[in-house]
Design a protein that fits this description.
By secondary structure, the protein is of the alpha+beta class. It has five helices and seven strands; from the N terminus they run H-H-E-H-E-E-E-E-E-E-H-H. It has three domains: 99 residues, SH3 type barrels (Roll); 51 residues; 33 residues. The longest helix is centred in the last third of the chain and has 48 residues.
Length: 201
C-alpha cells in the first residue's frame, strides 16, 4: 500500500477523501465490531460488506438492526434491508447510513480474503505473548545461579577445614588493608619524582 503523509489542512483532507482510490475508500468504510465479535475474532474494526448484520448506534433510526443490502463506495454509505422511507409520490426508497454510525453484529465470511485478514489481525497478539514469556524466564535464571553460588561456598570451606564464619571475615580484612598500603606506597613515589624533577631543573 502506498504511504501517505498526514495533513492538517481541512481542504486537503476533503480533497483526499473525495479523490481517494478504491482500496483506500474500502478502508474508510470500516465499522466497529460488537464486544462478542471483537473478543472471538481478535479485531476491533472491519470494513462493512454486503451480507453483514449491523445495528445503527446513532441518529433517528438508532437501535435498528438488519442485513446490509448494498455498499456505496462512491458516497461512503451503506443501505440496509427494511430501512426505508416513503416519498411524497408514495414510492419507498432505502435510507443511506454512514458506516461509522453502525456496529457490526454478525460477519459474512463467505470470502476467503476476509478470513485471511482476520488471521493477520490475530497473529500479532500471539507474537507479543511469545515475546513476554522469555523475559520472565530470564528474570528467574539469575535467582537460580545465586542459589548455586551460595551452596558452593560452604563446600569450599569444608574442604579447607574452615567454617564459613571464619573464612569470610579474613577476606574482608585483606580487602580493607590492601588499599591503605597502596596509597602509602604510591604517595612517596610521586613525591620523590616531583622532587627529582625540581632538583634537575
Amino acid at each position: 500500500m502506498q504511504e501517505t503523509n498526514r495533513v492538517k489542512n481541512p481542504g486537503k483532507q476533503r480533497k483526499r477523501l473525495f479523490n481517494a482510490p478504491a482500496h483506500i475508500r474500502h478502508k474508510h468504510m470500516a465499522a466497529p465490531l460488537s464486544r462478542e465479535l471483537a473478543a472471538s475474532k481478535g479485531a476491533k474494526t472491519l470494513p462493512v460488506r454486503k451480507g453483514d448484520t449491523v445495528r445503527i448506534q446513532r441518529g433517528d433510526n438508532k437501535g435498528f438492526e438488519g442485513k446490509v443490502s448494498r455498499v456505496d463506495l462512491k458516497a461512503y454509505r451503506i443501505y440496509m434491508e427494511g430501512l426505508t422511507r416513503e416519498k411524497v409520490d408514495g414510492t419507498n426508497i432505502f435510507i443511506a447510513v454512514h458506516p461509522s454510525k453502525v456496529q457490526i453484529r454478525n460477519l459474512n465470511l463467505d470470502d476467503k480474503w476476509r478470513k485471511s485478514i482476520l488471521g493477520r489481525k490475530v497473529a500479532p497478539q500471539k507474537k507479543e505473548q511469545l515475546k513476554v514469556k522469555p523475559a520472565k524466564k530470564a528474570e528467574k535464571a539469575p535467582v537460580k545461579n545465586k542459589a548455586v553460588k551460595e551452596e558452593a561456598v560452604p563446600e569450599i570451606a569444608e574442604d579447607a577445614k574452615l567454617t564459613a564464619k571464619t573464612a569470610l571475615p579474613a577476606k574482608k580484612a585483606v580487602v580493607k588493608k590492601a588499599p591503605a598500603k597502596e596509597t602509602e606506597d604510591t604517595a612517596p613515589k610521586t613525591r620523590s619524582k616531583k622532587a627529582s624533577e625540581k632538583g634537575g631543573e
